[in-house]
Amino acid sequence: MAQPPKQAYDTLTLLDESKKQQFQQNAFVYQIKGRPAFSFGDIWLQPGQKVIADTKALLWMDGQVDVSTGINGNICDSIMRNCSGESCCLNTYTGTQANQKVSFGFELPGDMLAFGVNDSSKWVFTYDAFIAGTDNLNISCRFSGCLACLCADISMFLTTVSIKNQNDMGIVLAGSYGMIERHDIPEGQTLLVSRGLFFAAKEDVNFEIGLIGQECLGLLNLGCTGGGIIFRFKGPCTIYTQSKSTIQLLRDFGIPGGKRSQGKVFAAIAIKIILKLLEIGVKAAAKGG
């Protein structure tokens, strides 16, 4: 059995360096490979140790690892999680022997990072970013805002990750299309991020939607180029961006609005089928009468 790497925590995103030792003692050992274009994560489990993951995330694993499927939380969390592109049900992988490896990835070519989660570090991610994490995490969603989802190429709902129990700590692996970059914004400074390129931030970080350009408050730029819509983040804060827009990629493949529209399309088709069946039933009943 392959041994886990000794330097598996180099990519762990933590604000407090002193807490890294606590994570190493209690959390799984992981290593992210293939960055930034084709990232995937290897996780090593010990007997009884668990990791939760998106149902589509598994790449390969040790054959003796136990796998179970559940909603991970309550029904409300499950429904809300689905609104931000995550699976209603999550898989739980439990180690049965020492150093069992499970590998996770995601559908699009892109980057992956690990984030530390505790009481003071709750995260909000772009649509469908959750890949895997410790089993003490709560995966849910929040509304992105009317202007954000209408104008800024962002989903109506964003994925949120928090810890279930106070004073506990966990790790989440998250990824998306393009390369992920960290930006530390000092107090008094502002970072402008082009639409569709926001990836992650602390849950309490606020952002504004605006335009760039000097003429007519940016309206001329918007009208002539169709661009210029930006997110505005004011320091002090830390923001993570992705170099490519997932929604733009899906548009390029002929899916207007990206994944957000697929559910509506399927729902509309289902409604039409149900109405048609009801119509046939009513006609059959009328003939029978």
Set out the fold topology.
Elements: E1 12-13, H1 20-26, E2 29-33, E3 40-45, E4 50-54, E5 58-61, E6 66-70, H2 75-83, E7 90-94, E8 100-104, E9 110-117, E10 123-125, E11 130-134, E12 137-143, H3 146-151, E13 157-163, E14 170-177, E15 180-185, E16 190-194, E17 198-202, E18 208-211, H4 219-225, E19 229-234, E20 237-242, H5 246-252, H6 259-288
Parallel strand pairs: 1-9
Antiparallel strand pairs: 2-3, 3-8, 4-7, 4-11, 5-8, 6-7, 9-14, 10-13, 10-17, 11-14, 12-13, 15-20, 16-19, 17-20, 18-19
Tell me what you see in this structure.
The model is unreliable at 214-226 and 259-272 (pLDDT under 50). A seven-stranded mixed sheet has the order 1-9-14-11-4-7-6, with no helix packed on it. Strands 12-13-10-17-20-15 form a six-stranded antiparallel sheet. It has a domain at 12-178: Double-stranded beta-helix, CATH 3.60.160.10. The chain is built from six helices and 20 strands. The termini are far apart. β2 and β3 form a beta hairpin. The protein has 289 residues and is α+β, with helices and mostly antiparallel strands.
